[in-house]
C-alpha cells in the first residue's frame, strides 16, 4: 500500500540521517594557534562561574572579556556533573567547567579536545600543584585549565561540638553526637570519602588512591556507607539545601564546601579539615572536540585564569585562586581570602584527594580490575535508595 | 442565496474544495503529511537510533559504542538488583500516584461538571488550572520546604502530637499527586460534562438507583477520559528524576536513565528507557481491551 | 440523576478538601515571597519586599519570561494545528497504520523527558539547526501535540458527520463547512487543549534543558539555576507568585469564551 511505502521511505531516510550523524566528525586534535575570535562562545558552567554583573555589579568578569575579545559569552548552567556530560555530548557547546568526576568521562567519550597550553599565556603562572593533575591530564597531555580548587570540609554545629572535631569519625560513627542529623553530598563520588577514611583506619585494605578501588576495597567502602546510611539526616544536592538545613538546626554535621559556610553567617556553624585529610575538587575548563568557536574558547580559558578575572571568580564562589598573581588581586577584593582558602599552602592540598573519575584501569600493577563510574553510580543508588 | 450565485461559474476555491471532496485519499495524505513528517523525521528517526543503541554495547575502556548486536544491556537490567528495584519502585509509584489522582480528581470534577452552577464552574476551572502556572520546580521546592523538620507540615501537626512524613518515598508520592492533579481533573471534568443529562434521567426513569446509574452508566462513559488523564500521570511519573532528587534520597527509573546518559552510556540508557515505553504500551493495550477508546 | 443532598454535601466537602490540598503549597510560596530572610524557615522571620524589588530589577527574569511566553505560544499553535490534523485523519479515514499514529503521538509524553531531550537534541544537531527559541518551540510542540490530538479526537467522536453533509447539501463548499459548522463544534476542545498545552510548555524544564542551547533561558531554566544560589532562591518565590496571579486573567477569559458550552452535538 502506498501509505505504508511512504511511511517506510521517510522512516528509513530519517534513521539513516540520524545514524550518520551520531558517527559524525572525528574529534579534532590540539589546536596549533589561536586565530581571531568568532564573536561568540557557548559555555556549560556551574552556577556562578561566569558572572556578568546581573547578580552583583561588583562581580563581573564576563563583560570585560566580551569588550576585550568581542566574544559574546552565552552560558547554560549544568545542574550536576552528569548533566554537564550529557550536554557536552550533544556537541553543541564550545566549553565546560567540568569537575573531576566528569573530566575523564568527557575525555573518554571524545567530547573534549586536548589543550595546547602554549597558546594560553596565563597558564605559565598557575601553581605547580594544579598542573598535570590526574583528573585532567592523560599521558602527560593536558585537557584543560583549572578554575580554582577547594576542599570538602567537615561542617559542624558549634553548639553540639564546642571544640572543632579532629576526625571524620563524627560522620561515620554510629555513636556520634550528630547521629541522625548528618548531611552528606549526594553524589557517587562520595564513595571516595569512605575509601579515604578506610585508608586511614583500616590500613590492611591497602587503599592508596580513593578513586582506584578494586573489588574488596570497593565493597568495604560500600559497607561503610550503608552503615552510615542509618545515621544520615540528608543527602544534599544543592548548596542551598544544606544552607537551609544547618540554618534551621536540622543538621549538626556533614561534608560541605567553604561556600556554604560563608553563607551561614547567622548560624552557629564552622568548618574544619580533619586529620585524615579529605577529598576536594579542582574544576577544569575544557574545550569541546566539536567547538564551533574554538578561538573564543581559548581566549576564555586564558581570561579565566588571568589574575583579575580569576580573583573575582574565586572570591565570588569561595575557592582558592590558581596563581600568586590572582591571589594578590583577591586580597584586594576580600582581605584574607587566600589564607582562608589555603591558596598557596601546598602542604594543605597534599592532604586533599582531588575528585577524579573512577575507571576500570587501576593505573598500577593491579591492572584493569578497578570499579568504574557506572559501578560507583549503581552502588550509590543502592546505598541511598533503601 | 439568490439565483445569481448559481449563475456564476464556481471559483477556484470551490473547485479545489470539490476536488478534495472527491479524492478522500488525497485529503488524507495532505492531512497526515505535516504531522507525520514532523513526528517521523524530526523525532522518531533519532528515537529509533537511540533505541537501537539498546542492542549495542558500550566499551568501557574506549568509551565508544560497539555496533555489534547484543542483548547484554537487557541481561544487565534483569540480573542487577538495582534496576529491578528501581523498575518496581517506579512502576509502583506511578500506579499509586495515578490511583490517588483519580480518587482526588473525581469528586471535584463531578462537582464541577454536574452540580456547580455555571459561574462556580468557571471559577473552579480557573482554580484548578492556576497551580499549573506556578512552575514545576517552585512547587517541588515549596513541598520540600514544607516537609522538612521545621516546615509547615510538622508545625501544623505538632499541636496534635503528630509528625509529618518528612522526605522520602511518601514525600515523592505526595508531590507527584500534587503536580499531576490538574492533568487528571480537566479530562475527567470534560468527560463527565459530555454525558448528556438525558441518559442519566432515562436510567433513573427505568428504576436505577443513583449508585447503580453511577456504576453502570457514568463510569463506562467517563472511562476514556480517565484513561486519557492517567496517561499523563503515568508517563510523567515514570520519567521524572527531579522530584526524587529534591524531596527524597531515593531514586527512580528516571534517575537511572539520567545517570546512564551522564556517563554517557547510551546503550544502557536506551535499555532502561525501554521500560517506561513498554509499560505505557502495555497500559494502552489493556485500556483498549477494556473499551476505553471505543466511541461513546 | 437526582443527586441526593447527602451526596451533594459530600461532594462539596471533597471539593473543598482538594482545593485546600492544591492551594496550601501555593500559599506557602506566596508567604515566602515576602520572607525577610534568605533562609526558608517556618514561620517566617519577618516580612519584606526586598525580593520583589530584586525581581523587578532583574532583567534576566523578564527575558526568561518573555522567552517562555513566545515558546509556549508557538508550541501551542503548532500543536493545535498538527494535533487536529492528525485527529481528523485518524477519525475520518481508515488506513493502514492508524493505530500507530496514536502511539507515535503519545510517544513524546510517554518517554522520560531525558530521552526525548537527548533525541531531539541529536536531531537538531544532525539537521544543523542552531539551538535557541525555535528549537525550544519545536521540542515543546512535539509533546504538546498529544494534548490537542486527544481533545480533538474525543470531540470528533461525538460530532455527527451528518451535519457536515447537510451543510454541503445546502451548497457550502468544504472551506465554508469547515469554518461555519466544523470549527465551532471543535472550539471548546481546541481551547481546553490550548490551555493545557500552553501550561505544559510553559512549565517544561527537562526537555528544554537539552533544546535551549546556551544563552537562552525560559522561566523553568532560570528557576533551575536560581535555586542553586541562596541569594536568588527567594526571588524564585516572587516569580512564582507573580506568575500565578498573572495567569488568572487569561485562564478566566478562556473559560468565559468557551462559555460552559456542553459537549457539542450529540444527537
Explain how this protein is built.
The complex is a heterotrimer of chains A (386), B (296) and C (267). Chain A is α/β, with parallel strands linked by helices and 386 residues long. In chain A, 37% of the residues lie in helices and 16% in strands. In chain A, strand 5 (137-138) and strand 6 form a beta hairpin. In chain A, helix 3 runs parallel beside helix 4 (100-108), helix 6 crosses helix 7 and helix 7 (215-229) packs parallel to helix 15. The model of chain A is unreliable at 13-27 (pLDDT under 50). Chain B folds into two domains: 3-54, no CATH class; 80-295, MetI-like fold, CATH 1.10.3720.10. Helix content of chain B is 75%, strand content 1%. Chain B has helices at residues 3-7, 12-22, 24-52, 72-79, 81-115, 118-129, 136-147, 152-157, 169-194, 197-205, 210-239, 242-247, 253-261, 266-289; strands at residues 57-58, 65-66. In chain B, a hairpin with a 6-residue loop joins strand 1 and strand 2. In chain B, helix 9 (169-194) crosses helix 11 (210-239), helix 11 packs antiparallel against helix 14 (266-289) and helix 13 (253-261) packs antiparallel against helix 14 (266-289). The model of chain B has no long low-confidence stretch (mean pLDDT 83). Chain C has a single domain, classed as MetI-like fold. Chain C has helices spanning 5-33, 50-57, 59-92, 98-110, 113-126, 133-158, 161-169, 174-203, 206-211, 219-226, 233-257. The two termini of chain C are 20 Å apart.
